[in-house]
Structure formats: C-alpha cells, structure tokens
Amino acid sequence: MAEKKRYSDEELEEFKEIINEKIRLARRDYESMMRQLMNADGNDVDDTSPTYKALEEGSSTQTKEELVQMANRQLKFIQGLEAALIRIQNKTYGIDRITGELIPKERLRAVPHATLSVASKNARSK
Question: How many Cα atoms within 13 Å fall on the side-chain side of residue 61?
Fold first, then answer.
C-alpha cells in the first residue's frame, strides 16, 4: 500500500475544529492582555495616590513590558493558527515542510500550527 501523502478531508475537519477553538481562546486571552495594557479594566489608584504611584512605577513598567511580550507572542500564535487554517483549505496541512512526509497526528493535536515533525525540528536546530 502506498504511503499516505495527505490527511483526509475528515481528518482535516477534525484539525480545523481544534484550531478554531484554540484561536477563540487565544483571541480571548490576547484581548484581555490588551485591555490590561490600555487599563480598560482599571480600578487603579494611579490618579489618587501619588506616593503609591511613585513606589509602584518601576514594577508597573516591568509588568507592562512583560504583558506586551506576552501579547506579541499570543498574536504570533494566532497568526500561526490562522496560517494552519489556510493550509487546511489548501489541503497541505500536516505535511512536514522539509521532508514532505505527514506530521504525526499526536503532534498536530498538541501543536496544531506545526509545520515540521519533531525529527525535522530537531535536525534543523543542530
């Protein structure tokens, strides 16, 4: 029997559902981070306590920088998931971009935006 070259439409549909759910959760988290950064949820004391503000400013700056980094990572994750949906549409999803072989389902369920198998990823990072 010939080796399978791509996932079936049914399998692609399963991956699509997984990815759509991950996108929904990732967008929710991203929006929450952005609200924090813009202080939209704020019951903050910034305008009422100058002494407290002076003490907390360094910590607040670091927290904001970390939040910006987390938001950027989250945005990159969403973009990776959206690219995976395009690969599903093109029926190229789950194909290792180096070897052309199928990426194992277990890996795709864990990392649905993966474009490399674990072996290819390890070989590439050496």
Answer: 5
